[in-house]
Amino acid sequence: MSVTEEIKARIDAVDIISQTVKLRxxxxxxxxxxxxxxxxxxxxxxxxxxDTGTWRCFGQCNEGGDIFxxxxxxxxxxxxxxxxQLAVLAGVELKPRTRDQVEQDDNLSRQRDVLQSAAxxxxxxxxxxxxxxxxxxxxxxxxxxxxxxxxxxxxxSLDSWDAGLKYLQSKGYTLDDxxxxxxxxxxxxxxxxxxxxxxLMIPVRDxxxxxxGFQARALKPDALPKFMNSPTTALFDKGRTxxxxxxxxxxxxxxxxxxxVEGNLxxxxxxxAGFSNxxxxxxxxxxxxxxxxxxxxxxxxxxxxxxxxAGDKATLRGLSVAREALEREGEVGFDPHGxxxxxxxxxxxxxxxxxxxxxxxxxxxNRDPDEWRKRAAEAEPVVAYVMRxxxxxxxxxxxxxxxxxxxxxxxxxxxxxxxxxRDAYRQKLARLLKxxxxxxxxxxxxxxxxxxxxxxxxxxxxxxxxxDVRRPTSRKAEATSLETHVLGAIVREPDNLYKIDRxxxxxxxxxxxxxxxxxxxxxxxxxxxxxxxxxVEVEPVAYLRTHLAEPLQPVLEALTRAPVEIAGAxxxxxxxxxxxxxxxxxxQALNVRCNEARFLLEAAREEGDAVLxxxxxxxxxxxxxxxxRVDRALAPGALNRARLGVTPGPRRx
Length: 653
Ligand SMILES: [Zn+2]
Description:
Elements: H1 3-10, H2 13-18, E1 24-26, E2 29-32, E3 46-49, E4 54-57, E5 63-65, H3 67-75, H4 79-90, H5 101-128, H6 133-141, H7 146-152, E6 155-157, H8 163-170, H9 175-180, E7 184-186, E8 192-194, E9 199-205, E10 211-218, E11 227-229, H10 245-255, E12 257-261, H11 264-272, E13 278-280, H12 288-295, E14 300-306, H13 307-310, H14 313-321, H15 336-346, E15 349-355, H16 361-367, H17 369-377, E16 380-381, H18 382-391, H19 399-415, H20 419-433, H21 437-446, H22 466-470, H23 475-492, H24 495-506, H25 520-534, H26 540-547, H27 553-561, H28 571-607, H29 610-634, H30 638-641
Parallel strand pairs: 12-13, 12-14, 14-15
Antiparallel strand pairs: 1-2, 2-3, 3-4, 4-5, 6-9, 7-8, 9-10, 10-11, 15-16
């Protein structure tokens, strides 16, 4: 049980609230005058439910919650304040959390400082050292000149075991500093030497231009690996950095367009040629984190893909199957399913810009800048690109081929979240295959993929956590377990919120909102989640860790660790179970609202207040309608028909 749950279990809401509000008992509920708004008449509009420990004002405030919310509002406190106060009342001890954040921050700025000094040192060597001649020639061979070197502070690391180590030590840095910054390697036996030797050094910076690490290119043809990155440190994480962003962000914003290439040297060539909205994914598959960083500055994101790599049908199909291939160094993964979903989730327009066979971006830029511009202008939406590549060199007059192409393309179309866009692609595919669009639509609706077998809603009910089984099941406990179940699934996998909202929408229901949660601590986490999704700087969970008040951290930790009861089920099943739980959560919230309104309707009729009675009647009608929709959705087989927006497979792009 979390601290907040324990407090709620120990404190009676009626006791707390009646300190402020004169409550009149009426069956299992209590009514009174709302303490949060002024009253013209004396109709009680404030209701407390003893068994759930919740309250609601049906008057002007139209607000409600648990005891935490009540104390927060009553005393003008934040959650921490309310928690302190109620913990004392409940006799629950709060443990202070350790604070090592400050120390951590100090460490990071020290690391940046070491890396910046190293960048200056390597840059000096590139410009001046006799030994760096082949590095200068390499750059010249790529058409990279002084501007590029200066703009990106390129450098050279000497062919020596400890030149860098000795230099940086002479500048006052300790071995721990150098180790922390990933600049030295320790051999067995404790011998230390420079990590980067005889390499072209490319400083990698974060969005604000602060050093995070290096990418080092081998200069001798037989030196391996060709590209060597800084190890993952507190600052450096390849998949979390967009190379060139500190220089590209302003132009990206002006053009509302970003071009993502594979290699850092391609970015440098592009910037030198004046294409300053170009960034790179650092030779890895483009991650969601990187997309979020880019999205902050441009909504239109073009992926410059090598025609022979991504354009190859085998690769296209192979990539969605053989995942491990994506992880190989220096290979850009192209995952159309992932991209299409990210597109809707992040609200961006992702397009594919195809490069000539076997040519890298810098080849095209150096050969003909106008061709680069033209290819950027002709970039296609991901689905259109996939459609073209899959159908290329196929005999589309052959009926069997038509089926094959349709089966391959339709799943991608299904991933598109916008109905109009989906329809446009369906029509495009129908024209391409010369078949009736109605047939395609039917095929799409019935699902090309094997449909999940229907299960009764009760059967997919997630099992109760063990702790709840031991406790006597009260309405409170059951409500809490559903809430934590759904919220936990979202916190652990933020993508789930998008899937839930989309499924709810398809069922004619409103998005998941904080009204679905009765517990204030969970409401607060949910509210911050929206903030976490809206920003792009950090992963949602990391965002929550820094943005939620201290006392909510244990709640968050519990949610991130909560057992995934639905794990082990196949992907489709897990989605279905989660949606099922969400619908039951919604039903629970609606039931409460509905009962509240009915109760108030009775009261208004007794008082003879026709205006109020009318208002509550309307509310009852609305809630009942919503409840019926939820019940229909929970009926056996209904979930299966709902679009879950699910495709099995990793989310990595
Ligand atoms: Zn009120």
